[in-house]
Amino acid sequence: MLETGAIWGLTGTTVTSFMFFWAMYKQYVPQHFRVYVEKYFHKMIGWISYYVDIKFTEYTEEGLKRSQAYDSIRNYLASKSTALARKLKANETKNSKSLVFSMDDHEEIEDEFEGVKVKWYSNVKVSQPQHSYGRSISDERRYFTLTFHRRHRGMIIETYLDHVLREGKDIGLKKRERKLYTNNSSREWYPWSAGKWSNVPFHHPATFETLAMDPVKKEGIKKDLIKFSKGKDYYNKVGKPWKRGYLLFGPPGTGKSTMIAAIANFLDYDVYDLELTTVKDNSELKKLLLDTTGKSIIVIEDIDCSLELTGQRKKKKDDDEEDDEEKKKKKEEEKKPNVEEKQSKVTLSGLLNSIDGLWSACSGEKIIVFTTNFVDKLDPALIRRGRMDNHIEMSYCKFEAFKVLAKNYLEIETHDLYEEIERKLEETDMSPADVAETLMPKSDEEDADICIKRLVKTLEEEKDKAKKLAEEEEKEKAEKEVKKKKKAEEAEKKKKEEEEEKEKKAEKEAEEKKKTEEEEKNEKVKGKEQNGDVSKTNGCNCLK
Ligand SMILES: Nc1ncnc2c1ncn2[C@@H]1O[C@H](COP(=O)(O)OP(=O)(O)OP(=O)(O)O)[C@@H](O)[C@H]1O
Ligand SMILES: [Mg+2]
């Protein structure tokens, strides 16, 4: 299709005639013939026009990645188009009363920079419809065209475009509503469909102030994050891609997911929640990561459960300790087809390459977070420093963390029962999630005093429960030990019996062998004696 920008600069009469012929041409000339005509028309325009066109496509040439230049230009033009463009596109964004205006397709606006006028056109190219499963699908490719007089070429390329990209980027950052993204299955990746990622506005209220954990550790993490976010030049200097890996591990309900939200709010980043089980293979994983923007956190939750990424280090089975029933159960479970594993062919090395290989350096300022309840299950290669630079243990609720929760949930900083609570928290393993739930008032009648007393009671119950559990475990362990000992004794006895049996058999065989040898010897002697008698007789005969 011809670009509107290409015909700018022709006189009024020429334009009118051209429009007439253009309409006729579109109606009567066949598509395959038009391709040639347009090719030569472009060439001709190039010879006679004093204007230069620059095209900025929505996706990079390889079609893999969204062009950041395009997004910056769109932001820049949106700020101009509200006042200047004739046709606007109005988008309603969630949780926002005001509409967001941008330049409509096939629309043009004029911009002026240092006394030089330029024109921007927004274009869309619709491909020939493809037929798939009875549906007709066509691909829409958007692009902007910048048109200016060729005598300003140097200034436009060196100064104006720089100005547009910088301003556009700043506008984008200021206006952007932070998003929480989740990856789509590759069947939904086409540009006319949902794309690689779906998103919703990110409004998680967690902050480092509301996060209950050791204050020293918390300060350390905050400092680390600030250093990272300001470290563009430093990372460049040391030759490292501008990214940082965090491994958050700990029991359930200790605040791993809450910490991710707090980091996103602290740094003003987007969150990409990557569901590995819906990623078909390593190549898809790379494409997904390439389609993420800077200033973002890429999260893989429960990495130990995401596919077979734990490497070769399968849990060593201690046969002696396993009951037959347990063995059976395990075998049955192993036989069950794991649907998720079958769907995804992402491998450990594919994941390692995506987060740490050459591909990882494609867009900067990214934090990669893995969470797990079982850090020991992970392959060391996955969590080595450099990949997962900062390992943070989220632990059960201790007194310092409790104080933060009490302040958040009950707005108190001290209470007579604090000392008792401190002691009890040391003796019990209660997650911050459980402590928070106990502290939360359940009705308007419940005040801080009631909630604190409820926590003391719950802690006592938890302690009793833990004690009982420990006793039961001890008992179970002792029973297992007895079973193991009995098994070992039986095995020893069996071994001894077998050895005795073997010995007896060997003795018997030796005796039989000896007997046979003796018999053979006797036979031989007997044979010799008989031979001697015969030769004697023969000798006598000769002498005769
Ligand atoms: N350290 C914490 N500080 C403040 N609130 C917390 C903390 N830990 C847990 N919570 C509360 O408990 C809820 C559950 O916590 P969260 O989802 O962050 O735990 P998790 O460690 O991610 O658990 P899982 O391992 O099961 O995913 C949160 O909504 C939050 O309200
Ligand atoms: Mg979680």
From TrEMBL:
One GO term of the biological process aspect: response to stress
SUPFAM superfamilies documented for this protein: P-loop containing nucleoside triphosphate hydrolases
Basic and acidic residues bias: start-end ranges: 331-343, 467-531
Segments passing through the bilayer: 6-25
Keywords: ATP-binding, Hydrolase, Magnesium, Membrane, Nucleotide-binding, Transmembrane, Transmembrane helix
Any one Gene Ontology molecular-function term assigned to this protein's record: ATP binding
Domain AAA+ ATPase: 242-398
Catalysis performed (reactions): ATP + H2O = ADP + phosphate + H(+)
Similarity field: Belongs to the AAA ATPase family. BCS1 subfamily.
Protein's recorded name: AAA+ ATPase domain-containing protein
Source lineage: Eukaryota, Viridiplantae, Streptophyta, Embryophyta, Tracheophyta
